[in-house]
């Protein structure tokens, strides 16, 4: 099979890739999630206004009767002011990074335990009860997406929040369902951009040998949401998942950088359109936060973290290169020993790297 150029680059078939010429950083001081004192394990974004800190902004002085405006109205003006005052090689955007709701793969990992899940069960398409290949949302996951929907509507009604100018979604089913439940049917403000998302390959979950990371083909995805746009170059079959090799942390971080590069300094995602929603996954959001220099902040299923990002085009091309090999992942061929902290195959069998399922789904 002849792979696309993107697949070859991501799978490490090319020797190296050029580092991005865009430098990213998180602008702190605006959200509670930026602060070391905020505990991610107990944080509820719906209870604290998305984490937006109650404070004044330098741009407030330009607003008449700013005391009557909501925190989100003043924050939006502050972001616009940052962009207006910045040179052409600097952009500011607010990324609303949303994790999908609970999926059947999340429930299966809880049921089997993480060691057994990682070294055997996750390599199957499912069991006799449920399917977790490109896992769909559970009823609990659907409820979590509806919590986000209701929260957005409350902020629209009460805070007059500026809703996203652009919507990006990972191609995996659980993220497509989450975004649809979250944003479809919102009573958007007058003049707001409609919910017209684009499905983008680079924002998918970190690619392991787990079948939950193996996406459906393009035709099937289109059949679920025929009005949604799929980015150019999106391949019919999933060329990235093969059931044998997995992205390293460095390889995923390089992919996340490329994903961000598609959102900044482009015509589609203009400087004026400063709010972008990204519906993705825990591992990919963690990778994006790392690229942005944000502190580690784990999200529960269905949670959202907003980040104010500063992007700067550096002069000249950065010619530094990085080798991005993927790693082979060993697993068991039958249910492993349970109640252990690491993968131990039954009867002391040696782990293998042969795929347990077909890769052409």
Automatic annotation (TrEMBL):
Signal sequence segment: 1-19
CDD domains associated with the record: HP
UniProt KW keywords: Signal
InterPro entries from the UniProt entry: His_Pase_superF_clade-1, His_PPase_superfam, PGM_Phosphatase
GO molecular function: phosphatase activity
Gene Ontology CC annotation, any one: cytoplasm
Superkingdom to which the source organism belongs: Eukaryota
Stretches that traverse the bilayer: none
PANTHER family: ANCHORED PROTEIN, PUTATIVE (AFU_ORTHOLOGUE AFUA_1G10590)-RELATED (PTHR48100:SF32), BROAD-SPECIFICITY PHOSPHATASE YOR283W-RELATED (PTHR48100)
Protein name: Histidine phosphatase superfamily clade-1
Organism: Penicillium cinerascens
Source organism phylogeny: Eukaryota, Fungi, Dikarya, Ascomycota, Pezizomycotina
């Amino acid at each position: 099979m002849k792979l696309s150029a993107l697949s070859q680059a991501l799978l490490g078939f090319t020797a190296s890739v050029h580092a991005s010429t865009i430098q990213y950083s998180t602008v702190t001081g605006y959200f509670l999630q930026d602060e070391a004192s905020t505990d991610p394990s107990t944080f509820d974004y719906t209870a604290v206004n998305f984490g937006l800190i109650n404070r004044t902004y330098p741009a407030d002085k330009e607003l008449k009767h700013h005391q009557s405006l909501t925190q989100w109205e003043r924050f939006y003006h502050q972001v616009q002011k940052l962009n207006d005052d910045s040179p052409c090689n600097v952009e500011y955007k607010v990324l609303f990074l949303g994790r999908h709701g609970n999926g059947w793969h999340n429930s299966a990992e809880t049921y089997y335990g993480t060691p057994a899940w990682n070294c055997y069960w996750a390599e199957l398409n499912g069991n006799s009860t449920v399917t977790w290949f490109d896992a769909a949302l559970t009823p609990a996951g659907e409820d979590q997406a509806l919590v986000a929907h209701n929260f957005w509507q409350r902020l629209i009604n009460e805070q007059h929040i500026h809703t996203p100018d652009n919507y990006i979604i990972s191609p995996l089913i659980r993220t497509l369902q989450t975004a649809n439940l979250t944003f479809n049917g919102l009573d958007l403000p007058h003049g707001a951009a409609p919910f017209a998302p684009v499905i983008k390959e680079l924002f998918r979950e970190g690619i392991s040998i787990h079948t939950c990371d193996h996406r459906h083909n393009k035709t099937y995805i289109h059949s679920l949401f025929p009005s949604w746009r799929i980015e150019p170059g999106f391949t019919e079959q999933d060329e990235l998942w093969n059931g044998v090799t997995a992205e390293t942390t460095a390889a995923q971080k390089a992919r996340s950088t490329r994903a961000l590069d598609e959102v900044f300094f482009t015509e589609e995602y203009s400087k004026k359109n400063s709010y972008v929603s990204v519906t993705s996954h825990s591992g990919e959001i963690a990778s994006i936060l790392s690229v942005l220099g944000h502190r580690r902040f784990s999200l529960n299923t269905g949670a959202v973290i907003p980040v104010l990002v500063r992007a700067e085009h550096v002069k000249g091309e950065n010619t530094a290169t990085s080798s991005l090999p993927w790693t082979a992942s060993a697993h068991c061929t039958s249910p492993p020993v349970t109640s252990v902290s690491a993968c131990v195959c039954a009867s002391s069998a040696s782990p293998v790297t042969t795929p347990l399922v077909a890769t052409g789904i």
